[in-house]
Write a sequence for this structure.
């Protein structure tokens, strides 16, 4: 495939990194996991995504940072409660295929296809694609298609790590409704009017609000818009980061995960498709 002028390739061991540089932004996407791990709009030259300095992008491990693709199940929502299955599904640990790349009106559009979509825990016929549009904003669209003759259910997420200046000095605007707190035995609570991170946070918000904002005291606000989701997941391990092998002990200060997610489960009928979208600005 001939790549457009805005796209070049870097090799990291057995992995291919697509480097995008157009009039509006730069970005980096790993073929392993189809994972976007850098997005810098040229309007302000500020990195929107966090990548752990301890992680590898050479296809020897799942990448800690950027936007991991969680599919066909989210977190530990294992089919049939089979805990032998991998956390967040198997899409993020595959080498995807680039099937299309083109420049469109100062934007760059890349489309990736997941080569294996049926396996232990998900014995169904499906097609999974990720469309990445790089411009003044980053738009990621995860498309699940039922190519079989029977309906199936799936969950998933675009599990984005956002780069923040200081986790102690941010406010999340736009999260509403009820949520389950995974750190408090999945008890139910109402979203706070002023949403700040003040300790370990792992909450599944059943919010249909599509427009969120990470407001930083430095003025570097990040917009996060979603579509096709039934939940917004907000996660930061706080000082528990010391127990995660590929996050620095103080790494929690520099990132916040806001995930556009399907946690309730979507039943997809034969020949139908579903799009999960996250738009970052």
């Amino acid at each position: 495939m001939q790549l457009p002028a805005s796209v070049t390739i870097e090799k990291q061991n057995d992995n291919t990194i697509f480097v995008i540089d157009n009039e509006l932004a730069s970005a980096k996407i790993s073929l392993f996991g189809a994972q976007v791990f850098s997005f810098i709009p040229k309007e302000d030259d500020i990195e929107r995504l966090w990548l752990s300095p301890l992680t590898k992008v050479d296809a020897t491990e799942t990448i800690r940072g950027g936007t991991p693709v969680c599919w066909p199940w989210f977190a530990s929502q294992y089919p049939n409660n089979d805990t032998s299955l991998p956390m967040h599904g198997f899409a993020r640990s595959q080498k995807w295929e680039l099937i299309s790349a083109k420049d469109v009106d100062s934007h760059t559009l890349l489309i990736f296809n997941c080569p294996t979509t049926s396996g232990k825990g998900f014995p169904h016929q499906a097609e999974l694609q990720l469309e990445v549009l790089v411009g003044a904003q980053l738009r990621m669209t995860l498309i699940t298609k039922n190519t079989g003759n029977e309906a199936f259910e799936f969950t998933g997420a675009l599990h984005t790590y956002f780069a923040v200046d200081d986790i102690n000095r941010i406010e999340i605007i736009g999260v509403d409704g009820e949520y389950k707190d995974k750190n408090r035995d999945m008890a139910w609570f109402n979203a706070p009017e002023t949403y700040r991170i003040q300790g370990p946070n792992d909450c599944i918000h059943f919010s249909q609000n599509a427009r969120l904002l990470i407001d930083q005291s430095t003025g570097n606000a990040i917009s996060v818009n979603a579509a096709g989701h039934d939940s917004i997941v907000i996660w930061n391990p706080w000082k528990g980061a010391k127990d995660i092998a590929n996050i620095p002990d103080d790494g929690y200060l520099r990132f916040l995960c806001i995930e556009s997610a399907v946690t309730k489960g979507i039943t997809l009928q034969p020949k139908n498709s579903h799009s999960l979208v996250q738009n970052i600005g």
Observations:
- The longest strand covers residues 255-268.
- The chain has no helices and 19 strands.
